[in-house]
Write a structure and sequence with these properties.
It holds the Pfam family PP_kinase_C. By secondary structure, the chain is α/β, with parallel strands linked by helices. The protein contains 20 helices and 28 strands.
Length: 786
Amino acid sequence: MKPAVPEPSPPPEGPAGNGAVTLRPARSDAPVSPVARKNGFMSQQDTQAEVQHPQPSVGSIAAHRQHAVAAVVSDLEPDLDAGLDTYEEAPTDGAPLPQGRFLDRERSWLAFNERVLELAEDPNTPLLERANFLAIFASNLDEFFMVRVAGLKRRIATGVATRSASGLQPREVLEMIWARSRELMARHAACYHEDVAPALADEGIHLVRWSELTDKEQARLFTLFRHQIFPVLTPLAVDPAHPFPYISGLSLNLAVVVRNPVSGHKHFARVKVPPLLTRFLEASPGRYVPIEDVIAAPNHLEELFPGMEILEHHAFRITRNEDLEVEEDDAENLLQALEKELMRRRFGPPVRLEVEESIDREVLDLLVRELKISEAEVYPLPGPLDLTGLFRIHSLDRPELKYPKFVAGTHRDLAEVESASAPDIFAALRARDVLLHHPYDSFSTSVQAFLEQAAADPDVLAIKQTLYRTSGDSPIVDALIDAAESGKQVLVLVEIKARFDEHANIKWARKLEEAGCHVVYGLVGLKTHCKLSLVVRQEGETLRRYSHVGTGNYHPKTARLYEDLGLLTADPQVGADLSDLFNRLSGYSRRETYRRLLVAPKSLRDGLVARIDKEVQHHRAGRPAFVRIKVNSMVDEAVIDALYRASQAGVPVDIWVRGICAVRPGVTGLSENIRVRSILGRFLEHSRVFAFGNGGEPEVWIGSADMMHRNLDRRIEALVRVVDPGHRAALNRLLDTGMSDSTASWHLGPDGEWTRHATDADGQPLRNVQEMLIDARRRRRGTATP
């Protein structure tokens, strides 16, 4: 049963029997999104100015070498918005869009995490993958509280919180989060205790508590405790001489109550579970026990509190506000300011207290009082707490309990079939653009190889690169360092404010600087989130630019787990666009329009809204028209309102979203032509695609931007237009497959509820789009499943 929690502006029911939802017209003071601004597209004067600067900007490199641009000037003339000037914003006939048309974004995020939980609950999901989804659910919820809930509480406390676009007051949103997350966390714990853990035991993987261990196992773990755990433990007493200790965010702790046998006084102490130790310890082959159980064993606690009587102990865990606030305008050095803020992050106020449901009331009251947390933020749960530890269990070498192994192959346009030597990626790109689809196409033999070849090639003069997230042992970083050390000009945009990767990115920024790379941190007030690489190469008497524009990070490890797209190209327009954009990011430039790019925060939202409105004109003229969008999140009101207008005009709109979606599909008179689907699976759907019917000449874009305020207003994001007809067709086929009723997915209803569609009317499993793509790659290599 679902709890009675505040709903976002519930609309009245439609006529009986038709399942429709109707919404009231918006009041004049309702949160109606602004009308899309007039596009700042490049004018004829801009075109002429562009013609005066045909050569690529490569700074001072190779000034002694003769070179020219590997394209005639006409090839670089902007054509991005040709034909759009004849189209105006879709008319609304003066009728305002209705009130309550936006779903609440926080509730939508919780619904996304519920879909993750449903995969853990699904008995058809491989068993260790179910454990993995339980860990992902827990990790997702941790971040949600650290960022979204913490931010909402901060805005309420400072008096700057306003009514959300869904119509809810800030306090209503917070209370809805508390109620909904409590329900989901209870389901999560039940799935572990009643389903996944027993099923794992049937497969010889026993997750047990201390009392379930044999005497031999306990003796073995006592030896382990004495030699490897006890030395790093620090019990902290609480009394007049010892104030209540600071409890770090996401740390697992033991609240211990002891009694002095001489005085008879009871005392409270806290023991922190060392975060660097293994979460589940192997007591014997196939039997694992939580580390806090080992620490809390009676004879083990006696080692920590000799001479005291151990009365009780309880596990608890705190989640704190860990979002960052750096005033960039006032910071003399952004790197130093961020490092200082990272130190303060550990001391953010608490936003959630998880406790074992068996906790003594007196101990709980002490924690609530000392941590200054409300009862609504206390979550009693059956132990063990912190099931992110199941990531460790998922890593066990039991392939029969996981998804079948898949090893990505080299993209067929990059594969070298005549010899075992590495392919010449530059030669391949001179022949054709290459559209990559990770993880089905190997990242290491495409994007990584592209940068490694550029670093080693003596004819490459410059490499320009954005880095938002990358791995700790990144071959991308190594290639950039090699290029700099060989004398090439290397510019790296390191986004040191990438959430929860700040420490790693600061480390790599310093390493790149020490190697001689030019490291910059983007523009003040904006995160650099676009995924771009630019290589400038001397070829005879000319310079040629090679580019990569992607939807995902330059992270070799996550490229095997995240679904992403990327375009490798030698197209001179894309190369010129990237040169202009990098110059804007590294220097002083006011360029806001490009040839084959849409760039936030200036032109991306307006460019997409104009194209959505253009589809209305095509539809009214009887030409082919549609809008198809695949994103992680769909929240931006201006874009959603444009989609509503398109739906009202009769344009079919398909939205494939992984996470948050504020669109209400299927509302009579507003969105009956809008369908919303979500797909979750073994890979994290991460690519962003925007496709338009365009009167029979389809237009398709890929890039880094989700439809959220932060992406469109506070980040540098880039979309690139895909021009190859085969690539456009392939992307439209992908969108068709994802939206098909024969594909397993979740469907969003007008009431904001998601319904899973995993089987057909006969109970047979629907197609899994990820498995279909895996099998397609295997067929190319002759290794498809029968």
